[in-house]
Write a structure and sequence with these properties.
Elements (H helix, E strand, L loop, with lengths): L1 E3 L5 E3 L11 H20 L3 H12 L2 H12 L17 H15 L2
Antiparallel strand pairs: 1-2
Length: 106
Amino acid sequence: MRTVISNGETASSHEPQDWHAIDWHVVERNVRTTQKRIAKATQECDWRRVKALQRSLTHSFAARALAVRRVTENQGKRTAGVDRELWDTPDLKRKAVGKIEAAKRL
């Protein structure tokens, strides 16, 4: 079951609501596994499966959370993006994951 919170975030029963509660080993493993499956389907020229796996990866919580983590924990982490927002607290990082999902639906 998925409910939408007023500011565009989603509250899912299987998505942690705290940035520090995310199990990063599981997140990285899920993303890596899906990427390997995409590569294998590409080698086999199974384009329908490639497209389905790509869609599942871009819509997954793990991929969105890992993307936010990579952007906010690299050398340029103190530089705002094109939206002029800086995600420097765990709460802002968690909200950014929700914003990415909300932006996908537009």
